[in-house]
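User: I'm writing a tutorial on reading structure tokens. Could you give me a worked example: one chain, its sequence, then its tokens, then a sentence or two explaining what the tokens reveal?
Assistant: Sure. Here is the example chain.
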Amino acid sequence: MSDSIENTLSKARRINQDISRYGVFAEIGAGQEVARHFFQAGKASQTIAKTISAYDMIVSDDIYGREKNGRYVCESRLNKMLTHEYDLLVDRLSPTRGAQSRFFAIANTVATASSGSNKQSHGWMGVRFQSEPGGPPNDIVLHVRMLDRHRLQQQEALGILGVNLLNCAFYHLPETESFVTQLVDGLKDDQIVIDVIKFSGPNVQHFDVRLMNLELVRRGLAEAILFSPQNEILNISDAVYGKSLLIQRGTFRPVTVTHLDVLQKGLQQIKDDVLKSEGKELEVLPIMELTMHNLTADGHVNEKDFLARVETLTSQGLHVLISNFFLFYGLKRFIRRYNPHFMALVVGASHLNKLFTEEHYGDLQGGLLEGLGKLLEQKTKLYIYPHKTPNLCLTAKSFFPSPHLRHIYAHFIENQQIVDISGCDETGEYLHSIDVMKMIEKGDPQWEQLVPEGVRELIKKQKLFGLK
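And here are its predicted structure tokens:
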């Protein structure tokens, strides 16, 4: 027996021996794995009131109701499972054992996939639990992707994660800093992705959902996380489904009026490109992206600074993506996992020099040519916004890479895969975040004119970015 399985059984045994814990296991789809560990650990009768595996779709719909979108592996399905099973448990058993039992319901809805399949192996898992007998319920919800090649390995990873989730909910709630470590204990590197974690309820209010999801990206457990304009954590695949995307990368420390003008010019350009590419109109979702590279200093994340950047961006009604992708082609490949529609990445013209720096593609066998080939194709374009200073104005047309790369650059220009979205006469001087920060640090009030009004008020009210 492997160490990870023995460790998992030990955790299940500890829960089984905790006579105050009593609950239901509901697993539909391919996730029939969590309850098994508790049966194998012994004394399961002290913990398990019921297990249910509604594998048949008709049976599942009869119990939990049908989803409007017809899907079974989705967050709304998981929430229905948790609500149905937890409420039923409490109604049935509160009169007889509610005074001494801390009730819980753990549920998952999962789709596994064999190697070579085009389907994704992913699922939703969550637990609803009481911290004290008769107390209010709390929820912890995860969205996961299983990376193992074979279904049995994926199911085994899911079982370990489920036991860890209960162990964390019951015994590690105060440990916010080590919570994620405990959650993935016993799982191998690159075995599972957790790209959403949510907390709700009075006993988990000390968890900052934004920072916990950032921790997933920092640790490499998630490639990216997405915030809504309401500062909610979104499942990326659901958020980008059926939409065209306009993505602007930056440091946004803070967001400037130039950043919003870049976005506006990109939105004007993308409408025609979507129609040409898709043959129909699609909703365009604008996203502001920050990389972990731009969030860390000496390998550490400044949490206050991170939250300030997210809040100032979402205050403008924008979605914010935090990613682990240093180069654009990695971001594009990630998005293509969920979305086949037209996508544009919009940057200032000064970034063209970085894009055509060969050293950045040293990990690719085909070097720069392979990297750009993976980035730019029929349904992906790079939008260029003029970089204008008092002395010059740089555009896609005025950029000249090294002589041996010019024919490659000309190919993308001629095929309109790299396009200007504004002329120098239609834009003002490019305002960098660093220019604003220097003014804030010096106490120069002119910074207030360089950021959007809502951002200005937020910075002043909350004393963000070191404002005194």
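What the tokens reveal: The longest strand covers residues 102-111. Residues 75-97 form the longest helix (23 residues).
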